[in-house]
């Protein structure tokens, strides 16, 4: 049976992602035990899992090292990658939002500065609104940028809203919905058609019962 490598991300999404694979009958026992390992065998079909950073899921899938990946569409919106987005897994739901401090006066004619980990998403959004902004790319803890005067506002992911709340920020605008997507390498879909579609179809069936 053809070998299928699946790239997953450590972090919030992992548990729910593993549950989906288990629900469609794919053994994830080694993956469940984790520890510090990064490559895991499944006893189902000829599947192995790798655990990488979210952005690297795209890279591994694009290069065909992983046939299938699970990643938030925040990264698909930010990075132009050569792969097929096959399914919305309906997990990891959150939103891209513009946020700032409560007292921020939005409607000035002054050009805004936006701090974000997602410069492409932010610039596309404001361009489509016809608003010119300056974007500052930062790598994390985005929420402190307006507090410290680095930026007027941030573009970031909001899930529960807790990070914003605890840092005294509020949502100014909701931008895009985010959820986890199943992506597939283009060549794998042709060359390993049967093996990839067996997985995709079973997950699609399972996910559609949950909507
Ligand atoms: C995201 C985002 C916020 C937080 C929002 O960061 O950048 O900081 O989650 O979640 P909340 O609305 O539930 O508080 P993440 O935890 O993914 O880590 P990162 O900053 O390392 O990307």
CATH architecture group name of the largest domain: 3-Layer(aba) Sandwich
Main β-sheet: number of strands, strand sense, barrel status? 6 strands, mixed
Strand elements, count: 11
Main structural class: alpha/beta
**Number of H/I helices:** 9
Stated plainly, the CATH topology of the largest domain is called: D-Maltodextrin-Binding Protein, domain 2
Kindly state the percentage of residues in helix: 25-40%
What shape does the CA trace take? elongated
The CATH homologous superfamily name of the largest domain equals: Periplasmic binding protein-like II
Number of domains: 2
Instruction: Give the SSE order as H and E letters.
Output: EHHEEHEHEEEHEHEHEEHH
Rg measurement, Å? 19 Å
Spatial order of strands in the largest sheet: 2-3-1-4-11-5
Bound molecules: 1-O-pyrophosphono-5-O-phosphono-alpha-D-ribofuranose
Mean pLDDT: 94
Distance N terminus to C terminus?
A: 32 Å
For the record, what CATH class of the largest domain applies? Alpha Beta
> Any low-confidence stretches, pLDDT <50, length ≥5?
none
Strand content: 25-35%
């Amino acid at each position: 049976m053809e070998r299928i490598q699946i790239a997953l991300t450590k972090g919030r999404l992992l548990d729910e992602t593993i549950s989906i694979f288990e629900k469609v009958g794919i053994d994830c026992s080694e993956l469940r035990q984790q520890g510090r390992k990064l490559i895991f065998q499944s006893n189902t079909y000829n599947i192995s899992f790798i655990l990488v950073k979210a952005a690297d899921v795209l890279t591994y899938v694009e290069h065909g090292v992983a046939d299938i990946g699970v990643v938030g569409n925040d990264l698909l919106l930010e990075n132009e990658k050569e792969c097929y987005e096959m399914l919305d897994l309906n997990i990891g739901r959150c939103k891209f939002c513009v946020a700032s401090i409560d007292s921020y006066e939005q409607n000035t004619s002054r050009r805004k500065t936006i701090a974000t980990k997602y410069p492409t998403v932010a610039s596309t959004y404001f361009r489509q609104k016809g608003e010119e902004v300056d974007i500052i790319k930062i790598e994390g803890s985005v929420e402190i940028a307006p507090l410290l005067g680095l930026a007027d506002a941030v573009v970031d992911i909001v899930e529960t809203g807790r990070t914003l709340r605890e840092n005294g920020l509020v949502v100014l605008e909701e931008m895009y919905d985010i959820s986890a997507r199943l992506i597939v390498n283009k060549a794998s879909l042709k060359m390993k058609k049967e093996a990839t579609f067996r997985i995709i179809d079973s997950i699609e069936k399972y996910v559609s019962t949950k909507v």
